[in-house]
Amino acid sequence: MRRAARSRPPSSTSAAAPGPLPDDQRRAAHTAIALLLDYPTAEAAAHRADVEDVVAGLPPDVRRPLRAFLDATASVPLRELQAAYVTTFDLKRKCSLYLSYYAAGDTRKRGAALVTFVEAFRAAGWETDGSELPDHLPTVLELSARTDGEIAGMVLDAHRDGIEVLRAALETVRSPYAHVVAALVATLPAMQSATAARFRDLVAAGPPTELVGLSDLSHLTPFATIPSLTEETRR
């Protein structure tokens, strides 16, 4: 795939795949979803048939929304799809594909959040190549597709409220990309009550904005600590 380059062997720690899907189906689903959520290009369009083949083999709860997206965009010219992508994901605060944005917004805390994502990739034995920030949702899904999913699953779970805000916002603007995020949600564990509460708060208020001189940011959603990232893992 596109962004990750192996830097060290993965951790020997093993864990069950996150969410309700078997490992092979999770990898396939997250590969397809990552490709469909990325910026549409002529190269991606050339591989559309391959994506459709992958989608056809997925469980119904994941396959149906992905099929709905593929059908909705099948006849849309590439330039029109690209323009819609930019309008949707780059110009709407609640439709960001950058997961840390939902908890940190444009505050200074986002820098620390991005470091956490970098460390998560390294703990899984991978590095991003710098073409995208590490909290970019398709990049995190690529990590899930390339690994046993333990660490990527932890990252997705830690930012589940943001994913739900993204899904709800896309549904509100009637974007076909809502189908893709709905398919992603179908691969994840059930949302916990605390996450649901944060989701409702984010829907109401939107991502935080920078307040110069603000000293207390304790109200912001904390970022997950990756327990497998130890000094031993770093060596």
TrEMBL record:
<feature type="region of interest" description="Disordered">
    <location>
        <begin position="1"/>
        <end position="24"/>
    </location>
</feature>
<dbReference type="GO" id="GO:0051082">
    <property type="term" value="F:unfolded protein binding"/>
</dbReference>
<dbReference type="Pfam" id="PF02613">
    <property type="entry name" value="Nitrate_red_del"/>
</dbReference>
<dbReference type="InterPro" id="IPR036411">
    <property type="entry name" value="TorD-like_sf"/>
</dbReference>
<dbReference type="GO" id="GO:0042128">
    <property type="term" value="P:nitrate assimilation"/>
</dbReference>
<dbReference type="InterPro" id="IPR020945">
    <property type="entry name" value="DMSO/NO3_reduct_chaperone"/>
</dbReference>
<dbReference type="InterPro" id="IPR003765">
    <property type="entry name" value="NO3_reductase_chaperone_NarJ"/>
</dbReference>
<keyword id="KW-0534">Nitrate assimilation</keyword>
<dbReference type="GO" id="GO:0051131">
    <property type="term" value="P:chaperone-mediated protein complex assembly"/>
</dbReference>
<feature type="compositionally biased region" description="Low complexity">
    <location>
        <begin position="7"/>
        <end position="18"/>
    </location>
</feature>
<dbReference type="GO" id="GO:0016530">
    <property type="term" value="F:metallochaperone activity"/>
</dbReference>
<protein>
    <recommendedName>
        <fullName>Nitrate reductase molybdenum cofactor assembly chaperone</fullName>
    </recommendedName>
</protein>
